[in-house]
Amino acid sequence: MPGAIHGVSASPGIVAGTAHLLRWEVPEVPSRVIEDAEIDAEIQRLRAAVDAAVERLRGVKTRAEENAGAAEAAIFDVQIAILQDAELRGRVESLVKQNLAAEKAFDLVMLEWREHFGRSANPMMRERVGDLVDVHIRLLSLLLNLPDHDPVGLEPGANAILVTHDLTPSLTIQLDRRAIAGIATDAGTRTSHVAILARSLGLPAVVGLIDATARIQSGDRVILDGTNGTLVPRPTTAVLAQFADRARREAAVQKELDALSGAEAVMSDGPRVTLRANVDLPDEAERAVERGAEGVGLMRTEFLVVGRAAMPSEEEQVEAYSDVVKAFKGQPVVIRTYDVGGDKLPIGGFPHEPNPFLGWRAIRMCLDEPELFKVQLRALLRAAVHGDLRIMLPLVVSVDEVRQARFLLQEAATELAKQGIAHRADVPLGVMIETPAAAMSADSFVGEVAFFSIGTNDLVQYTLAVDRGNASLVTRYTPLHPAVLRLIARTVDVAKQSGLEVSVCGEMASQPLMAYVLLGLGVRTLSVAAGGIPVLKRLVRGVSAAGAAAAAQAALAAGTPRDAEQVLRLSLARELGDELLDGLLGLA
Questions:
Q1: Which of 136, 193, 386, 481 is catalytic?
Q2: Do 529 and 435 fall within a single domain?
């Protein structure tokens, strides 16, 4: 379509709304010298801007408490404290007294502080760099009189399409679902943080737009097509009508799919498939239940630590985990232990590393910080009294890591027993298979774990040496690569031979062509964002295990991802028909 900006479909749906351009980056600050007679007035201007920023942050905190809870909103107390720091203000005012304009004086001091904190040997100081950047942006925006310096001003019903370069954790927790109708970002891929967040919230989203922030102005009328991955600025009346018609058709198909929420996911020749939900926040559990999820295949726990000023307490964690377990009334709830680092904001003393994806993260961090890890394990054991809670370890590459984690889990249970605190000591322990090492040595975990869960997002990334968050590499991030399919096939074979449950909780499970090959490889438990469950259920009910198995074998033998895709598409079209297949692909 002429004028459309093309990106990557991150979350399906079509919405027309008003663009809200958010430029969350440190602006360029021109050098400006002031006269001696202007110094007192310039200091007053600086103090007024600081007061305004503090007041704004208090409003941000209040909104964040409403959206994400008091614990998550505590990050803004840190930012308020930075702005009110006497040493910071004194150093800035000292430069103003040397005839520097307030904005340049503040800019220079903040750059110095950010470098100092970033190089500190103290990890707690290093983790404050993100807060310093946020404060840097916020106060300069006020001093330079720049518009739209955060999304807090959006009121419920604004029907805003948020257009920004990327979403940081501190921005994410400010978002009000009653005001934001869709998300468009320059950066990101289908498996990036913002894409996963949008699907969890049920918001249409397009990522990887590269330069949308340069081509869109706040107040522009736009159409966000999350299904096809496009953003259409300033559409004509005819284009609006065209997209409205498509939105109505998709809504009608979605209504039919939603009617399947109570139906079983049974393949046409008999095998039953279990469909579970991926949950990012506890309040998503009820929505997942309504969509027909048979439990949770992946509950991420990073929401408890991302952007926080301090690690969550045991009691806070017990409450969060228990809420989800109770919502599913005895159905399995698989909770992943902290997978922090790499693509998520460091917290709790993580080092800043040149290559964090291969660094100190996930199970590595947890085992190196046993007291921190045991707080989470204790909370999980306590929440398990409310239902079928299962614990999953991320980024495991060696059985030694499983044994160390199990030892800490037993210690946590012993501590709870001594204190007379209700808990379950028999919680099943499983591992995520998300590296070639784990897949190739899957047999070594047999006898040590109760289940496997294949995390395809990272498995693809590590197998193909492609950063899944890099928008410029999106065409090289190919889950249907023969190497990826063979690693999945090996993992499934080991699980079957050993009698272990094996599921897939990565993004492959949410896309019809890829879910079809997973079924063909023998996977019978899939976990996706709640909104994707109806699509997956219709897919399962329309295909046969025999047809999927034949297609999977052909895909395994294909020489390229494109050949594998073609094989799967032809087979799936024969089973479902072209019209239904196109409809499901559009809603995935």
A1: 193
A2: yes
126 is a domain residue = yes
Is-contact 424 443, C-beta < 8 A?
no
Same-domain check for residues 378 and 461: yes
Length reported for the chain = 588
Cα end-to-end span (Å), the chain: 21
193 is catalytic: yes
Q: Are residues 319 and 270 in the same domain?
A: yes
What's the predicted TM-score (pTM) here?
Answer: 0.75
Q: 244 and 268 share a domain? A: no
How far is residue 128 from each of residues 122, 247, 347, measured CA to CA in Å?
11, 44, 9
User: Is 374 inside a domain boundary?
Assistant: yes
Q: Which residue has the tokens 């009294």?
A: 385
Say if residue 302 is in the same domain as residue 332: yes
CATH, residue 159: 3.50.30.10
**Which domain-ending residue is among 215, 230, 253?**
253
Is residue 348 one of the residues assigned to a domain? yes
In the sheet that holds 160-164, the strands lie side by side as 5-6, 230-233, 221-225, 14-22, 160-164, 180-185, 205-207, 8-11
Give me the tens of pLDDT residue by residue for the chain, a chain 588 residues long: 567 899 988 888 889 999 998 888 888 898 899 999 999 999 999 999 999 999 988 988 887 777 666 766 777 888 999 999 999 999 999 999 999 999 999 999 999 988 887 776 555 566 677 788 889 999 999 999 887 556 556 777 888 999 988 876 667 767 777 888 999 999 887 767 677 777 777 789 999 898 999 999 989 999 999 888 899 999 988 888 888 888 888 777 778 777 777 789 999 999 999 999 999 888 789 889 988 999 999 999 987 876 565 678 999 999 999 999 999 999 999 999 998 753 443 444 444 555 666 777 789 889 988 998 999 999 999 999 999 999 999 999 999 999 999 999 999 999 999 999 999 999 999 999 999 999 999 999 999 999 999 999 999 999 999 887 776 777 888 999 999 999 999 999 999 999 999 999 988 998 899 999 999 999 999 999 888 898 899 999 999 999 999 999 999 999 899 999 999 999 999 999 887 877 777 666
As for how many domains the chain has, the answer is: 3
DSSP state of 309: S
**Domain finish residue from 77, 111, 143:** 143
Find the catalytic residue in 20, 366, 423, 505: 505
Residue 230 and residue 7: Cα distance in Å, rounded?
A: 6
Residue 541, in any domain of the structure: no
Domain carrying residue 415: 263-533
Instruction: Reduce the DSSP state of residue 33 to 3 states and report it.
Output: strand
Shared domain check, 48 and 11: no
One domain, residues 466 and 340 = yes
The token pair at 39 is 């110094």
Residues 6+ apart with CB under 8 A from 377: 337, 391, 408, 409, 412
